[in-house]
Amino acid sequence: MGRLVGFLFLLVLLVLGLSFAVLNSQQVSLNYYFGYLDIPLSMIVVLSLAVGAVIGVLVSAGLMLRLKAQTRQLRRKLRNAEKDSDQLRVLPAQE
Predict the structure, then answer these.
(1) Integer Cα distance of 51 and 30 in angstroms
(2) Residue 80 contacts by C-beta under 8 Å, 6 or more apart in sequence?
(3) CB-based burial label for 43 (10 Å; 0-12, 13-18, 19+)
(4) Is the pTM of this model over 0.70?
(5) Which domain holds residue 40?
(6) In this structure, is residue 42 part of a structural domain?
(7) Which of 25, 31, 49, 51 fits as disulfide partner to 36, beta carbons 3.0 to 4.6 Å?
(8) 7 located within any domain
(9) pLDDT in tens, 17-62
(10) Is 42 within 8 Å of 20 (Cβ atoms)?
């Protein structure tokens, strides 16, 4: 059932994307640092979204790596604290 819903979602997304491309097919001049291109408006929008998505993934990847390193450090501290706690339980009480 889940695969069918996913397939239908992708099909609807594909139809919406194709209709977007057809409705925005006029040529637009894109000026950039090294020259210019005449490409369809829909292509500019899709490329802008793709570049934004890639930048977002890169930024989140940096954050995720930092959080994973922090998790490793905290797990190491917890392991050391548990080891110290176990050693204190083994020592006989001095009166």
Answers:
(1) 15
(2) none
(3) middle
(4) no
(5) 22-86
(6) yes
(7) 31
(8) no
(9) 888 888 888 998 888 888 888 998 888 888 898 999 999 999 999 9
(10) yes
**Stretch 73-84: mean pLDDT:** 94
CA torsion 39-56-58-38 (nearest 10°) is 10
In a domain, residue 57? The reply is: yes
Domains: count for the chain: 1
Compute the radius of gyration of the chain from its Cα atoms: 28
Q: Which three-class secondary structure state does DSSP give residue 94?
A: coil
| Start-end of H helices in 1-95 | 2-23, 41-90
Confidence band (pLDDT; 50, 70, 90) for 77? very high
The token pair at 89 is 């339980």
Look-up: residue for tokens 């001049």?
29
Structure tokens at 62: 């940096």
Q: How far is CA 68 from CA 21, 36, 63, 77, 81, in A?
A: 40, 42, 9, 14, 20
